[in-house]
Design goal:
The protein is mainly α. It has ten helices and two strands. The protein has a single domain, classed as Hypothetical protein af1432, CATH 1.10.3210. Helices cover 66% and strands 4% of the residues.
């Protein structure tokens, strides 16, 4: 019973991810939470896998995407254009992930921590693909959900292209999608 009790406590712990607000909006106008983003990224990864040139363990990709933002429970979400915050986000999220994953039985803690670190370093095809999806989902959401002219931070299309440039090395099709979404978003007034 000790093992299952730890797992149940972890289920309670991950409920907290639903309270972490991100910078993207939802169709009803509110800001999405990190749990919603993780769920959507995991789902989208199954849709776009055909555009990734390498064979992937999709169960691992999906678990990685469900897990990748757990460090935000205590560290919060760092906006992609917050350069100061990005300098500390990995270490802050690692402390947070230790606290959350530390509730699990040792074997599950070790495998999930390893998977989280793999995503963070982007050292495998699985992690690279997961990072592509993590970068694409907010771009798609921003285009679909944001009202014309919504650009409160004066973000330029060049800034977005620079942040998403790594996608070009991973998938020609998904890079074309990225560039198209950025151009359409610019026409909509979402980027300068």
């Amino acid at each position: 019973m000790e093992r299952i009790s730890k797992q149940v406590n972890f289920v309670e712990e991950i409920e907290k991810l639903k309270k972490v607000t991100r910078f993207n909006r939802t169709m009803d106008g509110r800001f999405e939470n990190s749990a919603e983003h993780s769920w959507q990224a995991a789902f989208v990864s199954s849709l776009f896998q055909e555009y990734y040139p390498k064979k992937l363990d999709m169960e691992k990709v999906m678990l990685m995407l469900l897990l990748h933002d757990l460090g935000e429970i205590y560290a919060g979400d760092t906006w992609v254009f917050d350069e100061k915050g990005k300098a500390f986000s990995h270490s802050n999220e690692e402390k947070s992930i230790e606290k959350s994953l530390g509730m699990l039985p040792t074997d599950q803690y070790q495998s999930m921590k390893k998977l989280w670190l793999e995503f963070e370093t982007g050292d495998s095809a699985v992690a690279k693909y997961a990072r592509v999806i993590d970068a694409l989902v907010p771009l798609i959401n921003h285009f679909i959900v944001s009202e014309d002219g919504y650009n409160p931070n004066n973000i330029s299309s060049e800034m977005v292209l620079k942040k998403k440039k790594f996608i070009e090395e991973e998938s020609p099709e998904l890079w074309e999608l990225t560039k198209e979404l950025i151009q359409l978003s610019k026409k909509k007034g979402l980027y300068l």
